[in-house]
Amino acid sequence: MEEYNTVIIGAGPAGLSAAIYASRAGRKTLLLDKATPGGQIYLSSMVENYPGVKSTSGQELIKTMVAQAESFGTEVKPFSEVIESDLKQKQVKTKDSQYHAENIIIATGNRWRKLGVPGEDDLVGRGVSYCATCDGPFFKGKNVAVVGGGDSAVEETLHLTNFAEKVTLIHRRDELRAEKYMQEKAFENERIEFLWNSEVQSINGESGVESLSLKNNKTGEESRLPVAGVFIYIGMLPNTELFRDQLETDERGYIKTTEKMETALSGVFAAGDARHSPVKQITTATADGTIAAIVSSGGH
Ligand code: NAP
Q1: CATH number for the 2-111+236-296 domain, one of 3.50.50.60, 3.40.50.300, 3.10.530.10, 3.30.310.10?
Q2: What's the pTM?
């Protein structure tokens, strides 16, 4: 069993901020991630709302945060998925090791929700995508669709216009949920078309996506939209399955905390998108991570 002062699970902005603060406070800090560090933001093509950084990519921002955490002594372990946890005993297990800490900070974030329609699973990686940053360049000069009406859907629709000939944004209502500033940018863009009150019934194609079957939920009218790709941005689900029977969560599985990021278990904290909170931004995730690290280090 390896001993640490602080073990942080999840190396997105919340986990990395916690790591920067904890290691800078002299705590022996381990940061585990199931893949490469970064979380959701790693896939974001454009970050324009992180104060002090006018415009950057998620990848660049994360690279800097990792370097910063390591410079203060954080041990960052990528590809170290926590597969078992005994939070009461402050123990976690990965495939290769077991760790014990005085404090555990859960910053496991959330993941994309699936549409759950026929064709979605079969055509993943062959036209169905949850990452415009990764897959957008494959659709140069082609027609693609985006499903959703939130910040992610609109932001990635805008990004896709850098590659695709036309991007059709399909939304189940007649009003977007996204920030007004981004909505205006999208409405002004000639490459973007909007399909309102529309739901995807199936994703069709043999070796790749060829079309979407749609239904207008106001008129009941059915139609087919020929596209080479579809990007799905319909919200998130928390990565908290491993902890739900040990901690208090809300009905969707987000971990409940106090304003000091304390969970129902002493010495166990949660921060960022995995936590029950009204706003999920990089700035709120980094704030959560900061609070969790300072409180767990005995600062408050
Ligand atoms: P979101 O805000 O939850 O939006 C999800 C969208 O998908 C909504 O428009 C919703 O429709 C739609 N939807 C949900 N389930 C659906 C289904 N089964 N079929 C069809 N449509 C469905 O998710 P998000 O856009 O991923 O954003 C998540 C969080 O990250 C938000 O807090 C957001 O502000 C934040 N974020 C911020 C930025 C930024 O500031 N730059 C960028 C990305 C994300 P309804 O509108 O009808 O509910």
Answers
A1: 3.50.50.60
A2: 0.79
